[in-house]
Amino acid sequence: MRREEAIAAAAESRGPAPYAFPTQRSRGRRYPEAPHPYRGEFQRDRDRVIHSRAFRRLENKTQVFPQRYSDHFRNRLTHTLEVAQISRTAARQLGLNAELTETLALAHDIGHPPFGHSGEQALDRAMQDHGAHFDHNLHALRIVETFEQRYAEFPGLNLTFEVREGIVKHSRDYTAAEAPELAEYELDLRPPLEAQLIDWTDEISYNSADLDDAYEARLLSLPQIRAGVDLFAGMLDQVHDLYPHAPEKLRFNEALRRVIDYFVTDLIETTRAAAAPFGDVDELRRHGGRVAGMGAEADRARRQLKAFLHANLYNHPQLRREKERAEALVEETFRFFMERPSQLPHSYQEQTSRLPLHRVVCDYLAGMTDTYIAELHRDMIPARRVAR
Ligand code: MG
Predict the structure, then answer these.
(1) In angstroms, what is the span from residue 74 Cα to ligand 1's centroid?
(2) Is residue 357 part of a domain?
(3) Which of 6, 76, 100, 263 could be cross-linked to 61 through a Cys-Cys bond (beta carbons 3.0 to 4.6 Å apart)?
(4) Domain-embedded: residue 116
(5) In which domain, by residue range, is 349 found?
(6) Residue 284, domain CATH
(7) Cα of 361 from ligand 1 centre, angstroms
(8) Which residues, including other chains, have CB under 8 Å from residue 356's CB and lie 6 or more apart?
(9) Overall number of domains in the chain
(10) pLDDT at 19
(11) Average pLDDT in the 238-243 region?
């Protein structure tokens, strides 16, 4: 039934929803710029993100499986493209600002350090020893505000307020007490729906992609997934009825695409219903909680899939070995530069006059790709080489 409703709603949808963020209401850029003759402000932001170094480096950053597993598994760049694609579909269906949504999707992981979550945790632990933290959303903001050096007239990418706000707020709410530097982003207000959506499309993308790559890597088997993920089992039954003689891999693919479609359709319909009472974006921003989300049944399926991946994939002995190796590599490289700041590149050494050394070292490491930090570790820290 849901599918038919969605198709009917799609046929009916005309123009932007009342709660969409209107581009002409953008608060603009930190350094004012003349409008472009034919590109809108969020379109320019999207283009700037794509042309940034941090974006290109995503190609060499782990999503879940390190590069050497296989060339066709997701890395953080292809994951980002999948999130952007799903986000654009959902935004268009909801009558949201598709360009703002797409920009936020493309930017959502640019603050990620090397080696996925292992790298992030290792960096955060290293920072905690100095009474500080590493947070990839806050790091992304510093990248687009400061670290990218592309333009003669300003530092960073000079993105619009709404894109910077979305980078900060898309996946969590910060309090003024924990992040006083974020005061300008009005932490008591929710982000627009365009940003709220990203948290969900990100999760739909990685849950399904991780299942796909894990099956391909033979870390998870079809019977194991069927037994542990009810939604997938139901889809597999449908597929079996339709294509009883199809090879297993194709039945897996057919079931997985139905799982993605189920979650995306539910996200669109549940969010549309939840957003309906809001007359404009300001009302939606003042609401006490987030409006984007899934219905109860889909959310149960999402939680079951997530729990299954945690129990059977993310803690798989083979990935755990990779995780330990990555953590040790990040920790040792961090310690190396803390003890020998003169080994930092000159531009980073300069920053130590304004920032504590641990922050400078953290920024340096967070920008590295997997291959760069691995080579650096191998060349500069031979005595402490991590045993493989
Ligand atoms: Mg992501």
Answers:
(1) 11
(2) yes
(3) 76
(4) yes
(5) 3-19+41-385
(6) 1.10.3210.10
(7) 24
(8) 130, 132
(9) 1
(10) 96
(11) 97
